[in-house]
Amino acid sequence: MLMEHTIAPDAVDFIDDELLTRLARQGEDKARVREVIAKSLEKKALSLEETAALLAAESPELIEEIFAAARRLKRDVYGNRIVLFAPLYIGNYCVNDCKYCGFRRSLRSTVRRTLNDEELVREIIELENLGHKRLILVYGEHPNYSPEFIAHTVEIAYSTKSGPGEIRRVNINAAPLSVEGFKTVKKAGIGTYQIFQETYHRKTYAVYHPEGTDKADYFWRLNAMDRALQAGCDDVGLGVLFGLYDWKYEVLALIAHSLHLQRQFNVGPHTISFPRIQPANGLALEDLPYRVTDAQFKRLVAILRLAVPYTGLIMTARESKAVRDDVIEFGVSQIDAGTRLEIGSYQEKDKQGQQLNREQFQVGDPRELDEVIRWLAEREYVPSFCTSCYRKGRTGEHFMEFAIPGFIHNFCTPNALLTFSEYLNDYASPQTKAVGEALVKKEMQRYQNEKIKPQLITRLEQVNKGEHDLYF
Ligand code: SAM
Ligand code: SF4
Fold it and tell me: Is-contact 320 365, C-beta < 8 A?
């Protein structure tokens, strides 16, 4: 069932296959790697050629230098906060047949479902009662999931409240829309529009997305962010499904995409995600020739950190706790927590474990939000539910202007401490509350900003007396 969209004669192709292939295969040049690391530490975005130099580094000592630089850049640009969110699957009907996905149409064993309004409200209340403030709504690709339907679900998410609980930012991961469609979802107040190209390599793309399906149209997807930005959605999130093709090529393509957006719209992507392919209903991972090892995964995250210093990096719960533990310090700024993928599963808690015929893929880190928060706090990362930039209009191009040295420390760190304290008061287990409060105290001792500190102290006192939603 093909949906109506123009297979754009005006499609923009910014993926130069020959160039990316050549760059992805080049050999190591030690001096060049060190030059590029030095440039990245000045918080300058890297070119394709510079990113390729980092990708070519194979000697252990150079890789260690890249890791050290990524750690440092994360500290300087993002501070030690980690933004938390939850995915909420709205429906898994799908007209496509992506070979890696548990929702693909040819899988007869997949149980199909779309949340109705009442079920959606119950899911949101469950998430709010756990302490979530930021959601990403996820949809299969189907005529039922029209822009109007998506907008309706976004509106429900914003308007559903439970006690002190509310959702303050709703992002979406949905099939590519037309400019008009993007305007409709923008009007409903979406934060980030996220979509993954899956693979930027055209031949591989054709293998995984069979002809005759909507998703087979590589350019309709490749140009989705251009249409979103034209429609006024100024936070867009890119991604690759790692494991379909050569990881070095895909990292370069993500950079090519970022540079294209920067050139055309004067704004880079708000976030980049790097999901690795996971077991799914009807998917045998052994058949994948390009599976990314943990060691390669670590390198690709660190290199992305250095290449796009002001773009948020999202590591999803596809990764295990062990991998998340290891990789988080290389520049990750957002993670999902307490993740459940089965449609309706936040409210239907009695079900034990994952049932792959009801879900898109297997989750690697099934820990509850409270446990993830405690883990972060024990590692001295400040969990943040901040949604301030979006609500103060600091998005897209404006966000880039603000992403200057000092901005993050002046706004993001205080907002992280305020939203974290709110969480600790309203939702944390006693154990998490104790660890969290000790961290807030320590952070306040470290926090040196003459102008903001007194205001922050006052606001923290207000939060501890029961006030909500205070931010800079
Ligand atoms: N249906 C829309 C689409 O394809 O863009 C939106 C959401 S889809 C449910 C979200 C993402 O999940 C896909 O873009 C894909 O990268 C990822 N995904 C699909 N199958 C996966 C698997 N087996 N393991 C890990 N991620 C997977
Ligand atoms: Fe459908 Fe998205 Fe899964 Fe492809 S990845 S089958 S479009 S839900």
Answer: yes
